[in-house]
Specification:
The protein has helices at residues 3-14, 66-73, 76-79, 92-101, 111-119, 169-180, 198-204, 216-221, 231-235, 248-253, 255-274, 276-286, 291-294, 308-320, and strands at 53-59, 82-88, 106-110, 124-133, 142-145, 161-163, 190-192, 209-210, 225-229, 239-247, 301-302. The two termini are 25 Å apart. It is an alpha/beta fold and 339 residues long. The longest helix has 20 residues, at 255-274. The relative contact order is 0.19. It folds into two domains: 3-7 and 52-134 and 239-335, 3-Layer(aba) Sandwich (D-Maltodextrin-Binding Protein, domain 2); 142-229, D-Maltodextrin-Binding Protein, domain 2, CATH 3.40.190.
Amino acid sequence: MKRRELIKKAAVLGGLATGGPLLAACAPAATAPSPSPSSAPTATASPTPKPIRTLKVGYLPLTDFLGMYAAIEQGYMADEGLKLELQAMAGGATIIPAIVGGSLDFGISNYVSVIVANGQGIKIKAFSDSAYGTKASPPFAIIVKKGSSIKTAKDLNGKKVAVNTRNGIVHVGVMEWIERNGGDPSTVPYVELPFPQMPPAITSGSVDAAAPTEPFVTVSTSQDASVLSYYLTDLRDPCAISGFISTDDWITKNRDAAQAFHRANTKGMDWVAKNDKTAREYAAKYANLDPAIATKINLAALRSTPLVDAVQFWVDMTKKWGLLDKGSTLKAEDLFVKF
C-alpha cells in the first residue's frame, strides 16, 4: 500500500479514537629507572561512546510511561546511543497518523487504536510494551461530581460522558462497562475532551461524568469529584493499556534503534520498580504535575513484554463494538515485534 493511501487511512484515526572513581597516579622517584618499552604497562583504552541518534517520539504527558522517563533521566537511553525528542500529543489516535506521515519515528498508543489501524490496513506494531492497569493500582476511572445522583451504570443513561477520543480504549471501555452493569451505552452522548480538561468540566457541570486517567483522576478527586468505577480493571485485571509502536516498515529498517529503545525502556521499568519516590518525581516533571499530587496517584503496572491474552481482550472488544470486522483474522500476537 502506498504511503499516500496509508496517510489517508491514518488520518481517519485522528477522528477515532515516555563519573567513575578518579584514580590518582603517583609519579615515580627521580632515581627510579625508566621502564623499557617492552616492560611498560599497556594503557587501557576508554570505551568508545556510541554515536547519538535522535528519534522523534509522540507521547502523552501521563504517568503511564515512567519507564521511558526513567531511562532518559538515568542515562539508559544515552548509553544506547539514543536521544529522544518527545512531542506531547492528544492520544494514540493522533500519534498514529503522524507516524505514518513520517513526522514521528515512533510513539505510544493504546491498543484499541493499534487494532483499529491494522484493521484498516495500516501495519502498526508494538516493539516495547508499557502500561497495564491492575486492581491494586488502577490508573483509569469514571468520575462524577461529589453529591451527584449518578450512582450506577444505569444512571449514566442519557448523560454526557467525556472521553478523550471516540473509538479509542477509553470510549470502548466505558461502553462495555456500562453495558455489563445494566446501563444502555447507546443512549449516552460521548463528548471528546482531552484528559487535562476533564476535571474542570466536572466542576463546571458541562459533562455529567468523565473517564480520565492518572494523574487527572487524583487531580479530580482532590477537588470536587468522586470515583464511580475503575472501569478498565473492573473489565479485566490486569488490563493492557498501551505500548510503543511504529510502522512495520520503520521497525524493519530501524531494527537496531527499536531494539536499543526496548533495552533502555526495560531498564527504566526495572529502575522504577525499585525507586518509587524518585519515579514519582519524574512523573511530576514529565506530566507537568504538582509534586504533592504525584505522591498520591495510582501508577500503572509496567511491562516491557506483552501479556498477549490481555491484548486479545481488546481485539475481541473492537469486534464486538464494530470497530474491527467480525471476520477479521487479526490476533493479538500479530501486533508485536519479537526481538
